[in-house]
Amino acid sequence: MTRNYLDKDLANLHDLILKMCELVVKSLNDSIKSLRDQDTKLAEEVINLDDEIDRMEVEIETACTRLIALQQPAAKDLRLITATFKIITDLERVADHGVDIAKITKRIYKEKYIKELIDIPRMGEIVTGMLKDSISAYMDEDMDRAREISKRDDIVDALYSQIFRELLVLMMEDTKKIKQSTYFLLISQYIERVADHVTNICESIIYMVSGEHTDLNE
């Protein structure tokens, strides 16, 4: 196979990753919106979208395997494909957390919320921005941007700690609020884990470009 064929296949791989990321961003955004608006129809759409995201993961895995088998890439090209394998795994797990949030929405949509949802949507906004920017950094092979994106995880962690403290106080003050507080705590945990998955993507970008294994979760 010539270099032109390899470049064409790698460009196609980038297109697939971008499409998968767009679906995952939609899943995450819609799951948080469904929670905020108590919209079970939107929550159901998030759950149904997961099949398409899973299908895309398999499609990209197949494309990567085919590239390795047929074109025997070396050095940076091989690192790109290896990083892509890892990135789609993290994207799929982000989508799973979107489904987790949507399922909780379906459980509590009839209930009046114990508090106005402010910090959870804020967390969602931050991690969605992180996710979009990480895929942009992947496309541009930008290590510096990947490192910058990973630092936003500290903001997400701080918001999670704040939410945890507030919900703990609510549960201690009124036992009737324990059920909903537990659900909101779970949701904030899911979003915090999304930020961890984005950080993993940033690590994969650094490896792809430099061959350096980096732990950005420290």
The structure class reads mainly alpha
> Looking at this structure, what is the CATH superfamily?
Phosphate transport system protein phou homolog 2, domain 2
The stretches of 5 or more residues where confidence is low (pLDDT under 50) are none
DSSP summary, beta strand count: 0
The major beta sheet can be summarized as: none
Domain PhoU: 17-104, 120-205
Subunit structure: Homodimer.
Keywords: Cytoplasm, Phosphate transport, Transport
Family: Belongs to the PhoU family.
Molecular structure report:
This protein has 218 residues and is mostly helical. The chain has a single domain (3-210), classed as Up-down Bundle (Methane Monooxygenase Hydroxylase, Chain G, domain 1), CATH 1.20.58. 85% of the residues lie in helices and 0% in strands. The protein is built from seven helices and no strands. The chain has helices spanning 3-37, 40-71, 75-108, 119-140, 143-151, 153-173, 178-210. Helix 1 (3-37) packs antiparallel against helix 2 (40-71) and helix 4 packs antiparallel against helix 6. The radius of gyration is 19 Å and the shape is elongated. It starts with a helix and ends in an 8-residue tail after the last helix. The mean pLDDT is 93. Residues 17-104, 120-205 form the PhoU domain. Homodimer. This is Phosphate-specific transport system accessory protein PhoU. Plays a role in the regulation of phosphate uptake. One of its GO terms (cellular component) is cytoplasm.
Helices, strands, pairings?
Layout: H1 3-37, H2 40-71, H3 75-108, H4 119-140, H5 143-151, H6 153-173, H7 178-210
Subunit structure: Homodimer.
Protein name: Phosphate-specific transport system accessory protein PhoU
Domain PhoU: 17-104, 120-205
